[in-house]
Amino acid sequence: MKYGALPHDQKMKTKVVFVGAGPGDPELLTVRGKREIEDADVIIYAGSLIHTDMLKYARGDAILIDSHGKNREEIFAIYEKFAKEGKKVVRLHSGDLSFYSAIQEQMEFLILRDIPFEIIPGVTSFSAASASLKREFTSPGVSQTLIITKPFGKTGKPEKESIKELSDHGATMIIFLGIQLISDVVSELRAGYPPETPVAVVHKASWREEKIIRGTLKEIAEKVEKAGIKSQSVIIVGEVLEKSGVSKLYSGIRNHEINTKLAQKDEIMNQKKIAIFSLAQKSVALAEKVKGVLSDKGFDAELICSEKISCEGGKKVKSIFNTIRESFRERRNIVAILPMGVVVRAIEPKKKTKDPWVICIDERGKYVIPVLNGHRGANKFSKLIAGGISAQAVITTSD
After folding, report:
1. Which listed residue, 85, 135, 157, 390, has the most CB atoms within 10 A of its CB?
2. 3-state per-residue secondary structure call for 71-89
3. Residue 12: which residues within 8 A CB-CB, separation 6 or more?
4. pLDDT at residue 10 is higher than 70
5. Are 17 and 90 in contact (CB under 8 A)?
């Protein structure tokens, strides 16, 4: 017998039906799920996770059992007891049953006891979160991959599936069961995502009590803790929360124009933030001149110097190397007046479609060299800076 997908003539004999109850809103329960509840002799549900309005669909003589506080063996005993009595049991699980539902061991028990069962899928909470956020979690040119995961727990997980390892992909990530560990989750995410990466936390998606917290990776933990949210939340991480593309499915001149404008808007926003680094005292005047050139053109240029030198109007830092690395991870474009080798070791480039551009200038101010992402801005800005400081732009790639 093939369990979980019973032939039509065996469905009438089904003793246990697992129903995905959806994210919370009773109106998001599937039509088939509602029908199974109406037909059930016994309904087992988790009172803390299932909206009790769904129980109104039950027959007046149906037995309702809250599973809260009951262990696995007690639930198994309920299945066996009512199966022997020939009663139909509906087990209501929140969300969808295909992941993090813990029904696998329940199915294995039923198979061993030769108790037929069936599965009715439900709407998952991250689908409800998508609807509440009004964002699609995949978008052409931004992210076409969705990672669903959770932090390490008592059940364990392969090391290669840790959030830290998965974050290196840069894909849209959906994190379940992680809200109580939000600080640890953020720490792992920072291994692959820049601090400015958009994050949304949706608490009790689709419920009347739904709450949405938006922010960036560097601030979301503090916002969540301040809001006092500690349960029933899904964490969404990725650029799709702010950026979007247009599917080729709807191709045409109009969509090409939309794509172009979206790309130009993102490009302009990214180009606005520029960090200018000066390591030695003799390069400070040059750095200030570069800042003036960029500021005059309307760019948000910040001068950053070593704390060991005099640098009026600039931000002083203990480690230029570490600050360059942090700025790069925050996707700030960089102009560095220091050895190119130092800069390359600091930035650790990953993806040309996401990394900011980087430019190096020699201390004498003779050459302006685009080191990274020439065609995405470095070439253009090298020429702009070179013209402003009477230097030569060394362009090695096409614009």
Report:
1. 135
2. CHHHHHHHHHHHHHCCCCE
3. none
4. no
5. yes
Q: Which two tokens stand for residue 166?
A: 């998965």
More confident residue, 285 or 4: 285
3-state SS string for 153-209: CCCCCCHHHCHHHHHHHCCEEEECCCHHHHHHHHHHHCCCCCCCCEEEEEECCCCCC
Class of residue 219 by CB neighbours under 10 A (exposed 0-12, middle 13-18, buried 19+): middle
Q: Please give the DSSP secondary-structure letter assigned to residue 356.
A: P
φ, ψ of residue 70 to 5 degrees: the values are -90, 140
Q: SS3 breakdown of the chain: % helix, strand, coil, rounded to 5?
A: 40, 20, 40
Query: Which residue ranges form the domains of the chain, and what is each CATH number?
Result: 8-123 (3.40.1010.10), 126-241 (3.30.950.10), 263-393 (3.40.50.11220)
pLDDT digits (tens, 9 = 90+) for 108-126: 999 999 999 999 999 999 9
DSSP SS3 for 320: helix
Cβ(72)–Cβ(105) below 8 Å: yes
* Per-residue model confidence (pLDDT) at position 330: 79
Mean pLDDT score across all residues of the chain:
86
Query: Does residue 290 contact residue 275 with C-beta atoms inside 8 Å?
Result: no
Q: Whole-model pTM? A: 0.60
Strand partners, 203: 211, 233
Q: Which tokens is 292 given?
A: 């003036």
Sign of the CA dihedral running 161, 162, 168, 169 = positive
The dihedral sign for the CA sequence 323, 240, 381, 289 = negative
Q: How far apart are CA 332 and CA 354, in angstroms?
A: 11
**Residue 287 to residues 291, 301, 326, 364, 370, Cα–Cα distance (Å):** 6, 11, 19, 11, 16
DSSP state string for 386-399 = HHHHT-EE---S--
Locus of tokens 């006092």: 228
